[in-house]
Amino acid sequence: MLGNLLVAGSANSADVLREIASEVGFELDEEGASVIDHLNYDVKDEGQHTLVVAEPENLVKAVPIVGKPGTAPLLYQGTGILTDRENPLVIEVLTASSSAYSYNPDSHVTEFPHAVGKSTVLIAALQARNNARVVFSGSLDFFSDKFFTSAVHKAGGRQFLKSGNEALATALSKWVFHETGVLRAGNVKHHKKGETQPPSEYTVTDQVVYSVELEELIADQWEPFTASDVQLEFVRIDPFVRTALKPGPGSMYSTEFKVPDVYGVFQFKLEYQRLGYTRIYSTTQVSVRPLLHTQYERFIPSAFPYYASAFSMMVSCFIFSFVFIHFKEEPAKSKAE
């Protein structure tokens, strides 16, 4: 899939990298600025404390992006990144500790730094609406062999024989180039309950069965995707039905629902968007018509009182007519009689 980028900068990033970052919703700190942390640094850095030790707890909670969580801390030496937190497409993959800030280590701090504490992003990512991916790191050294194999000894903390840089870099590269976190939907089917073929149109109140196959790319093989939060919507401008898709055999998900008592042009709409996974969007358009005259109920229970009143009027009229026709008054007797 085209349009994927893995970019690594530094404290002295070129203008072209800054322009790329701004195009995807990131901002690199000023030229010469480095992330500084006087509490979370490696003992090999006895001077400016720019060799920052980032804990695995600061990683985003998304296995497709960062892989399975490890225990080894990460080494970072580079500039800070600012992100637009109102942008729903931006992902803060790795943030600094609350004691960190980004500033020029060769200058005195005379004004408030642009990036302070958790707002100092070390590695950021973005997944566009067309599923193109970008990973941006403010440290080129993060991906170096030196940092991959280096031991980590946090000042006043534990010592680790190897950093977690290599594992994270591998997971990030696989994610950004669509080797992990890739989903696809296929084999969409819909039909009336008890049938197997889709009709030319549905009728209001029909019972409908919908099914779809969801798969995930794992080690270059498409495997069944497992999730419990996949939903289907039956939409005519607004959703009339929203129901959960239940996993079935293999990669099949299915559901059954009743068509609403509203006719028009509807869509079966499947939209699945989760952190770290490609967006699934599938729509199937169908028509829903009203009942035919021959399909309406012959007698409606709610109208029984009206039926009773009509029949009672008929019976009353019959009795009245019978009495009126056959009733004969006796002739009046004369005075002589």
UniProtKB/TrEMBL annotation:
The chain crosses the membrane at residues 304-325. Pathway: Protein modification; protein glycosylation. Residues 3-176 form the OST48 N-terminal domain. It is a single-pass type I membrane protein. Signal peptide: none annotated. Keywords: Endoplasmic reticulum, Membrane, Transferase, Transmembrane, Transmembrane helix. GO terms for biological process: protein N-linked glycosylation via asparagine. InterPro entries: DDOST_48_kDa_subunit, OST48_MD, OST48_N. GO terms for molecular function: transferase activity. Pfam families: OST48_MD, OST48_N. It is found in: Endoplasmic reticulum membrane. Residues 190-327 form the OST48 middle domain. One of its GO terms (cellular component) is oligosaccharyltransferase complex. The keyword Transport does not apply. Subunit of the oligosaccharyl transferase (OST) complex that catalyzes the initial transfer of a defined glycan (Glc(3)Man(9)GlcNAc(2) in eukaryotes) from the lipid carrier dolichol-pyrophosphate to an asparagine residue within an Asn-X-Ser/Thr consensus motif in nascent polypeptide chains, the first step in protein N-glycosylation. N-glycosylation occurs cotranslationally and the complex associates with the Sec61 complex at the channel-forming translocon complex that mediates protein translocation across the endoplasmic reticulum (ER). Belongs to the DDOST 48 kDa subunit family. Component of the oligosaccharyltransferase (OST) complex. This is Dolichyl-diphosphooligosaccharide--protein glycosyltransferase 48 kDa subunit. The lineage of its organism: Eukaryota, Metazoa, Ecdysozoa, Arthropoda, Crustacea.
